[in-house]
From TrEMBL:
The chain crosses the membrane at residues 43-60, 80-102, 122-141, 148-168, 188-214, 235-251. The keyword ATP-binding does not apply. The lineage of its organism: Eukaryota, Fungi, Dikarya, Basidiomycota, Agaricomycotina. It comes from Mycena citricolor. Residues 46-90 form the DUF6533 domain. This is DUF6533 domain-containing protein. The keyword Oxidoreductase does not apply. Keywords: Membrane, Transmembrane, Transmembrane helix. Pfam families: DUF6533. InterPro entries: DUF6533.
Length: 283
């Protein structure tokens, strides 16, 4: 059995759509299913447009602050990661969101997009996770043990993520949607959601480490600067909000009304979302 999936495992745009397995069959109820699929297809496309608008809006309102505070910094890892996430990843994700929706793309282009789609997502999340790691290092007092542990874990996560994505991508086929579904449709194996598992585990460990060093015992016994406390507080709040947001998503009938919540929501929607909605919020 296959579902359609944008084979991207982040952080950000849902670039492709799911083609339900029932489309190959004809029978009673097919029309009703097609109408439902059209609604879900529209939801995914509107979400694409919303995320593209969000990226462009964020760039416009923050460019002045970026020029004054970032461009003057020395060329070190944080600045490089920031600029990659700012100027390399967004164009890739915008391309990934818009091109698969163009009417009457040739089959060769759809197949290329199916194979290419995971990598912008992996690059985006990899840079984001490295930035999160730098925050955790600061919260943990730059301990060498924490640094070595997280870097090792990060490399294992990245290896597993790339391996799973490669397996899924190898078994993913892109094809034109025709008159009913303009743009590209991608047929992927049902286990495509497993590509989200490594980053979910890694970021969960990141928040556990952050919570440990942000505990009352740590602050009372060793003290910390206000900046470090803010970093810890924001990281924990970020995780809790996301966790609460996705806690009800395994219910299939609610997936159509869910809100974007990064990794865990991507994993659960990809696993439990019906038909086209399985690709909602992917990337």
């Amino acid at each position: 059995a296959t579902n359609i999936w944008t084979p991207c495992p982040f952080p950000s745009l849902p670039p492709s759509f799911i083609i339900p397995t029932w489309m190959a069959d004809s029978g009673l109820g097919a029309l009703e299913q097609e109408i439902t699929a059209l609604h879900d297809y529209a939801a995914v496309r509107y979400t694409n447009v919303a995320f593209v608008a969000l990226i462009l809006y964020d760039y416009v309102i923050t460019i002045d602050t970026e020029v004054s505070r970032i461009w003057s910094l020395k060329w070190r890892l944080p600045k490089i990661l920031y600029l990659i996430n700012r100027y390399i990843v967004p164009p890739m994700l915008i391309f990934d969101a818009i091109v698969p929706a163009i009417y009457n793309l040739p089959e060769s282009m759809c197949d290329f997009i199916a194979k290419w789609t995971p990598w912008p997502t992996i690059i985006s999340l990899t840079t984001s996770e490295m930035i999160l790691m730098l925050r955790v290092f600061a919260v943990a007092g730059d301990r060498k043990g924490v640094r070595y542990f997280l870097w090792g874990l990060f490399l294992c996560e990245l290896a597993g993520w790339i391996a799973l994505s490669s397996i899924v991508t190898k078994n993913t086929v892109g094809s034109p949607g025709g008159m009913l579904f303009p743009g590209c449709l991608f047929s992927a194996p049902t286990y495509f959601y497993t590509a989200w598992i490594p980053p979910v585990i890694f970021e969960s460990i990141l928040i556990i480490v952050t919570g440990y060093y942000a505990s009352a015992y740590h602050w009372t016994k060793k003290g910390s600067s206000q900046t470090i406390q803010i970093l810890a507080r924001d990281s924990i709040l970020y995780f809790l909000i996301i966790f609460c947001d996705i806690s009800w998503m395994p219910f299939r009938q609610l997936c159509a009304h869910s809100t974007p919540a990064v990794l865990l929501s991507n994993l659960l929607i990809a696993r439990f979302g019906r038909d086209f909605l399985g690709s909602l919020f992917i990337a």
